[in-house]
Amino acid sequence: AQSVTQLDSHVSVSEGTPVLLRCNYSSSYSPSLFWYVQHPNKGLQLLLKYTSAATLVKGINGFEAEFKKSETSFHLTKPSAHMSDAAEYFCVVSVRPSGGSYIPTFGRGTSLIVHP
Amino acid sequence: EAGVAQSPRYKIIEKRQSVAFWCNPISGHATLYWYQQILGQGPKLLIQFQNNGVVDDSQLPKDRFSAERLKGVDSTLKIQPAKLEDSAVYLCASSSRIQGNSEAFFGQGTRLTVV
């Protein structure tokens, strides 16, 4: 079985300051890891993904995440927050039990609030 | 490449009524998922299909929810009878079975309000 823990339900930053959204996972299989963003009344948009290649992954809109196997973490960062980054962010772990299909499991989400 | 299509986008029904949602996945994607996202929570997997067979429906409330994917392409999710707590966004997603291609692609969702 796999699970995802997003350590903060809300993160509040000022525009122009760094963003850190924390995610820890557990998995019995080699995981693929994703971050999705969801703006109000919009669909889920993929920010970035880790699929066993480089551990530092760069995504859209200046976001990046680092896969740390020893810490079972996949934290999302951005050097400078923009007002348009305010949204709900979901960390997702996806595993493929032998011979089966991928099973994406979501964290509970972190609401990013950006102050002017 | 067309994305995952879902309809309707919005639905309001009274409790004890029935409702159905439709999903058309990305062409060629063998795996199809239905998720329920209650306000303020992350999406929860309800059911997963591989072609027209069910892979996992352990979190599907089978006394009122049903889903099918008869021809291994599009899918319908039905609720009968609906309860107030079924108010949520229902998301459909699809993915390829190709090894190493683990990304799931999501539709816009159907927002259900039960009154």
Secondary structure topology:
The complex is a heterodimer of chains A (116) and B (115).
Chain A: E1 3-6, E2 10-14, E3 19-21, E4 23-26, E5 32-38, E6 44-50, E7 56-58, E8 64-68, E9 73-78, E10 87-95, E11 103-106, E12 110-115
Parallel strand pairs in A: 2-12
Antiparallel strand pairs in A: 1-4, 3-9, 5-6, 5-10, 7-8, 8-9, 10-11, 10-12
Chain B: E1 5-7, E2 10-13, E3 19-24, E4 31-37, E5 44-50, E6 53-56, E7 65-68, E8 75-79, E9 88-95, E10 105-106, E11 110-114
Parallel strand pairs in B: 2-11
Antiparallel strand pairs in B: 1-3, 3-8, 4-5, 4-9, 5-6, 7-8, 9-10, 9-11
Instruction: Assign a percent range to the helix content of chain A.
Output: under 10%
Please state the structural category of chain A: mainly beta
Which percent bin holds the helix content of chain B?
under 10%
Rg result of chain A: 14 Å
Shape of chain B: globular
Strand coverage percent of chain B: over 45%
Mind summarizing the main beta sheet of chain A? 6 strands, mixed
User: What's the total helix number of chain A?
Assistant: 0
Q: What is the overall pLDDT average of chain B? A: 92
Structural class of chain B: mainly beta
